[in-house]
Amino acid sequence: MLSFMLKRIAQLIPVFIGATLLVYFLVFATPGNPIEALSGGKPMSDATRAALEAQYNLDKPFWVQYGLYLKNLLTFDLGTSFSGQEVSAMLGRAFPVTARLAILALLIEGIFGIIFGVIAGMRKGKWFDSTILIASLIVIAVPTFVLGFVLQFVVGVKLDLVKPTVSGSATWGELFLPALVLGLVSLAYVVRLTRTSVIENKSADFVRTATAKGLSRRRVITVHILRNSLIPVVTFLGADLGGLMGGAIVTEGIFNVPGVGHLLYQAIQKGETPTVVAVVGVLVIVFVVANLVVDMLYALLDPRIRYA
Amino acid sequence: MTETATPKPLLEIKDLAITFSTPDGPVHAVRDANFTVMPGETVAIVGESGSGKSTSALAAIGLLAGNGSVSGGQILFDGEDISHASEKRFVELRGNHIGMVPQDPMSNLNPVWKIGFQVKETLKANGLAGDNPKQRVSQILADAGLPNPEARANQYPHEFSGGMRQRALIAIGLACRPRLLIADEPTSALDVTVQQQILDHLDTMTSELGTAVLLITHDLGLAAERAEKVVVMYKGRVVEYGPALDILRNPQHPYTKRLISSAPSLSAQRGDKHEAIVDEIVPGKAEPLLKISNLTKVFDIRKGFGRKEKFTAVDNASFEIPKGTTTAVVGESGSGKSTIAQMVLNLLDKTSGEITFDGEQIGNLNEKKLFKYRRRVQPIFQDPYGSLDPMYSIYRTIEEPLRIHGIGNSASRQKKVAELLDQVSMPASTMHRFPNELSGGQRQRIAIARALALQPEMIVCDEAVSALDVLVQAQVLELLDELQREMGLTYLFITHDLAVVRQIADNVCVMERGKIVEQGTADQIFAAPKSQYTRNLLGAIPGASLI
Predict the structure, then answer these.
(1) Does B5 touch chain A if contact means CB atoms closer than 8 Å?
(2) What's the pLDDT at A297?
């Protein structure tokens, strides 16, 4: 188990280098000169331009730029943005906000998704099941930004239950509505996945045997159906955590959340390579770690899986 | 429970009818069934799949599938009608009044919980865990014949063999000392010797505890050996009911007669045998079609941390199959018999030794020669559900080998498929159907037709009839026998069932842990087995002492 974990963590290195190199190259290859953007299109003396290009290493060839970036990275220097802010400081502010948002979304989709999924699965073909199926289909079909604006308008403006936008401090309470919007589509998938898995397991032979042992229906469901049904759901949730972190751009835009998505969007617009690469790098690490956690959970839920 | 002078029946089934509602309308799975189980008595229900034997028993423990219900009659347990009892009442009854040992040990234990946990929760649910549940669990597992129960309780089902799992399931079924135990084909998935041990153990335990047993089985020999009374069910009805030996010796209903005549365990004892083609071949003159010498197969088993262990699946095996005869390779699971079949079919590379077919060594055949070899040797596999492609029509399944080998044009191939279907006694209209529309026996006929399509000289049957009901099994064996006589086919027959061997084989090789421990003609092996292992195998066939 330990050697498996170490192996997986060692895999982070090539994955990280590959991902950052790719992103670095994409931003490098994007048309438009970042210095032009920085100056806001105003005329600039050649000397100033050259000085700025030298400051951000923009005058050097691609490989040198990337090499210098990696070298700085080893000393935990993520570089500075064009506005002169430390990228690490910006990330430090934005990352916790997005992490809170993503974890809240994950909790919402995990808890409600599994509960609704189990009930629907146990009552296959009854009204609850049909309602859940139709509702989840609608949620999957409607784009996130539509859902986001509708909920923001109804819950935030009309009913005035929560603040329609998020303040700079982005507290847990403020983030609830954005998290709901962010997690809603995945919630629909979790419901359907759990439902299918429960339906499959409830007719398994060992469930019948468990019933024949004299166990109550509640115990049969929680002990014998639920744990077995969670295996595919956990895989989905883990993979989704990475998606939630990276995919929050739209939601963060609607609710004005000062998170990673927001930061990334602005950095791409300005062509700020260090910021873009840093954000993507962090997301890559989150993704890989989330997958590692999924694999660990997998082994925990299913004793037949052993890693060597 | 108080003892009375005239004991009351423990379970009384009166005019029971069970109906399943399906999209195609109601299906009457059981009609007018009547039988009783007295306290401490063993009653066997015998019938083929779909006869309603399991359905009747499951109704008594409230475990009918969702769309099934008792549509008439009564199920009296200790005088109480439980045919429409509430779920709550059944939760009270299950475990400590009515226990169950299910059929398939592989799928009936929850793979994600430890064995000990699964026993303990049974005790807890019935309020019998006591002060020291851990010790109680060990005791129960030990009673069921599991050695080293403390360690075993800490293991997961996948760490158990099939026989051990069945013991664990018996432990669970009897954990709460029920008065009635429903044993649904408790050993049909196990090797004969393991089957015998487990049934013996079940007998001992239930007679010590005074438990009544409702034994469900498709094997009349086994039923007669283990039960005091036998209920024969056919198409949802009880066709015969009475003391076991009476029914076995003096069957009244035609179905029971058929069942007795085709029960492999019984015919093996009587020594029924097909007219061996070997008689027509002068011994010694028959050319061996297949010759296996010093065949060995070693597998590497990974042990983690890069360590490997060698496992010898087949160890220095040698035998010959004369043309036009049947040689059976018999042994328990893990004996290496299927590995031999796979090497003969060239689906698996041998480690050392020689396989010679018609004078030519296989194993170093080039692609072109191998292609030709495949035409001459065809397989029939165990599971007729898994070995036919569900997306292929029957026509496409049978026609495919002809097409691959470029035989005939589409018109002649269609004619050939119709002929082949006729040979296996299936109507030509079957060719437009799909595997899921056919029964297990019908599918196995299709698999035989497919194997025959290329007019092979040898057919390798790997447990070809093990998945089939006895009557269907007898029909398929008869068909194979007929085809052999008509076409002079040679069979290599891999099976764990000595009873089947008796019906089909001319020569027998007995395998134990990779080695051939005994070989000879079927008559020799059955009449005068030399090795202790063969004697054990023969002794384990149910019904041995009855005829």
Answers:
(1) no
(2) 82
Whole-angstrom distance, CA of residue A51 vs CA of residue A34: 14
Q: Which residue of B has its CA nearest to A217?
A: B91
- Window A:243-302, CB contacts with B under 8 Å: 301-302
* Exposed / middle / buried, residue A167 (Cβ in 10 Å: 0-12, 13-18, 19+): exposed
Say yes or no for a CB contact (<8 Å) between B95 and A308.
Answer: no
pLDDT of residue B5: 56
Of the candidates A210, A212, A219, which has its C-beta nearest B110's C-beta? A210
Q: Terminal CA-to-CA distance of chain B, rounded, Å?
A: 39
The pLDDT assigned to A241 comes to 83
Sheet order of strands, B229-234 included: B98-101, B180-184, B212-217, B42-46, B229-234, B237-243
Q: Which one-letter amino acid corresponds to residue A298?
A: Y
Q: Helix or strand or coil: residue B286? A: coil
B94's CB contacts (< 8 A; 6+ apart) are A211, A212, A213, A214, B61, B62, B100
Q: In what order do the strands lie in the sheet with B326-330?
A: B377-380, B458-462, B490-495, B326-330, B507-512, B515-521
In this predicted model, which residue has the larger pLDDT, B308 or A288? A288
Query: Are B122 and A214 a contacting pair at CB < 8 A?
Result: yes
Q: Which two tokens stand for residue B421?
A: 């279907």
What would the pLDDT profile of B433-483 be if each residue is shown by its tens digit?
A: 888 878 777 888 899 889 988 889 999 998 888 777 777 788 888 888 888
Asked if the Cβ–Cβ distance from B121 to A303 is below 8 Å, we say: no
- Residues of chain B with Cβ-Cβ distance to A229 below 8 Å are none
User: What is the overall mean pLDDT for chain B?
Assistant: 84
Asked if A156 and A233 count as a contact pair (C-beta separation under 8 A), the reply is no
Using DSSP's 3-state secondary structure scheme, residue A203 falls into: coil
Residues of A whose CB is below 8 A from B166: none
For residue B93, give the 3-state DSSP assignment: helix
Q: Would you put residue B227 in left (φ > 0), alpha (ψ -120 to 50) or beta?
A: beta
Task: Give chain B positions within 8 Å (CB) of A203.
Answer: 65
User: With an 8 Å Cβ cutoff, is B532 touching chain A?
Assistant: no
Residues of A in Cβ contact (< 8 Å) with B99: 212
Question: For residue A303, which residues of chain B lie inside 8 Å, CB to CB?
Answer: 111-112, 114, 156, 158
Per-residue pLDDT for A66 more than 70? yes
Q: Report CA-CA distances (Å) from A166 to A107, A174, A183, A253.
A: 19, 6, 17, 10
User: Is A211 within 8 Å of chain B by CB?
Assistant: yes
| Residue A84 · residue A272 · CB < 8 Å | no
pLDDT in tens, A137-195: 998 888 888 888 888 888 888 887 777 777 777 778 788 888 888 899 899 999 999 99
B107 touches chain A (CB under 8 A): yes
Question: Is the CB of B104 inside 8 Å of chain A's CB atoms?
Answer: yes
What digits encode the pLDDT tens for the residues B305-331? Answer: 556 678 888 888 999 999 888 999 988
**pLDDT for position B276:** 42
Read off the pTM: 0.72
Q: By the CB < 8 Å criterion, does B305 face chain A?
A: yes
User: Which residue of B lies nearest to A302 if distances are taken between CA atoms?
Assistant: B112
Do the interacting molecules here have an ipTM over 0.95? no
